[in-house]
Description:
Strand content: under 5%
Number of domains: 2
Oligomer: single chain
Amino acid sequence: MTLTIEVPAEVESALEAKAARLGLRADELARRVVSDFAHAPEPVEGEVSAEEKRRAAVRSLRGMLAGGTRTVDDFLRERHAESDREEAEYQQRSAQREQAA
C-alpha cells in the first residue's frame, strides 16, 4: 500500500531529525511508526495503561516528597540509626532471655 500524507513543516522537520538520529530515512521511520500503531493491542475500556500507571506513581511519589528537604544521605543515616536501635533491642531481649533461663 502506498500512502501520501500531508504534515505541517514542523512535523516533517521533526520526523527527518528523528530519522537521522536513528540512522533511517524519514519514510522508513514513518512506515515503522504506522506499523507499530497498526499492530498495537486495542486498549480495554476501563483498563489503565502502563504509562498512566507510571504517571500516577510519579505523582504519588512527588506528593509524598513535596516540601521535603531530605537527601539520600539523610535517608541512609535514618535507616542506619533504625538498624542500630533494632540491634540494641534484640541484644536486650536476648540478655533478658538468658537471665530468665
